Amino acid sequence: MISKFLDSLSEYLAHRKGLLPIIGLVLIVVNLVLQFIFPGSFIAVSNLFLHIGLIVAIFGLMLAWAL
Fold first, then answer.
1. Residue 67 carries which DSSP code?
2. What's the structural domain count of the chain?
3. Nearest CA-CA partner of 33 in 46, 19, 18, 50
4. What is the DSSP string of 1-66?
5. How far apart are CA 6 and CA 15, in angstroms?
């Protein structure tokens, strides 16, 4: 079940190599906007979307290079 999911996911991402880095950059921009909208909230203080976006973008670049 997991192997079928990973196979279909890799097939989908093979044709869309820049999708994950773009999603990562969007999450980083969302983090920047949240810094100004909710300056004292947990998400803004912890930079949650910044870290998730950075991980997604790096993983997307490594996956695009491998595919």
1. -
2. 1
3. 50
4. -HHHHHHHHHHHHHS-TTHHHHHHHHHHHHHHHHHHHSTTSHHHHHTHHHHHHHHHHHHHHHHHHH
5. 15
The pLDDT value given to residue 67: 65
Give pLDDT tens digits for 55-64. Answer: 999 988 888 7
Whole-model pTM: value is 0.80
Q: How long, in residues, is the chain?
A: 67
pLDDT of residue 10: 77
> Could you tell me the residue range of the domain that residue 39 belongs to?
2-66
Separation CA 35–CA 42 (nearest Å): 10
Q: For residue range 16-48, what is the model confidence (pLDDT) as tens digits?
A: 888 889 999 999 999 999 999 988 888 889 999
